[in-house]
């Protein structure tokens, strides 16, 4: 099945059972598990990105001591930038806005896929690309976009994300100068903003790595576990309890797929609109264990059409998590503010500060804002 056959932009709710479709088969997407070149260091990374082609200019900029050239040198530190300069093109904020806009269009071209939006799965790609970060070793995170490589692309937690990687690849073909890490995290930002979520400050500067930078399996959370596991995983990334609870509010969006994670169903009645409904439903509904042959998950007693993962339910059981979950259920603005801050941090995990092309993050406009 090709996406061009599924163009009509429609938004649908979780109740539209007829719109549920089995996942688009990953075999219809290009595979991106390129074998790694024999490079061993970042110097080789830059070389691979075409720095060699303008080595003379770069050398001058790096070695010159004037302020202007130092700024230029900082900008050049990003491999993505390097590739662009090699192509005689230095992208501006406006160029990244164009990439954002293309992603935003694609989000709405989902036709009958899931609930009529690719936003949730694109958001999940951004999170899984970043959430591998380990602050004690500095490995993982969004910098190198290592989910392009096997075995990381095949890790159980990443099942189904070939859909999102395939969509992002279409954008990459149009904007070849952008790094995969920048593209995927910008996808996460666009997904949140286009689905009516808070503004997410974002900066460019990630560089494409190699398979050797890929992370081992087990760095992403296991939905069947309890509070100690959730803390192990998120503390490893550098987050605290409040940030953990805020980030999990992203489960207002999208759904579980039995052919991906084994779990099934959406968390909210509006899975393509970013709200604090995830927390509200956690406290307002009565949650019971679903009777089925699949993995242990909860369903709402009233309609039996919504679900919660064991890790979601823990947010109402653990005393510290519960305090924040309740606060977000009661105050949507607080949730939006805290989600934005934590998600912006998540998107930058593993990216050395000096790689960013601007010191201040940018706020990109939604399609609606640009129309207005
Ligand atoms: C304890 C932490 C978490 C666990 C155990 C977890 C687990 C899961 C699972 C099992 C799914 C279903 C995948 C599928 O079957 O397609 C899912 C979906 C999703 N998750 Fe999480 N998640 C966690 C945190 C997060 C965070 C921090 C974010 C983003 C900030 C996030 C965003 C999403 C989104 C948007 C979906 C829907 C994807 C779709 O509709 O295709 N999750 N998550």
Automatic annotation (TrEMBL):
> Where's the Plant heme peroxidase family profile domain?
164-372
Gene3D superfamilies xref list? 1.10.520.10, Peroxidase, domain 2
Presence of keyword Oxidoreductase: yes
Q: Which InterPro entries match?
A: Ccp1-like (IPR044831), Haem_peroxidase (IPR002016), Haem_peroxidase_sf (IPR010255), Peroxidase_I (IPR002207), Peroxidases_AS (IPR019794)
Keyword Ion transport present in the record's keywords: the answer is no
The record's GO CC annotations read:
mitochondrial intermembrane space; mitochondrial matrix
Provide one Gene Ontology biological process annotation.
response to reactive oxygen species
- Which EC class is the enzyme in? oxidoreductase
What does the function comment of this entry state?
Destroys radicals which are normally produced within the cells and which are toxic to biological systems.
Q: List the protein's name.
A: Peroxidase
Which species does the entry assign this protein to? Serpula lacrymans var. lacrymans (strain S7.3) (Dry rot fungus)
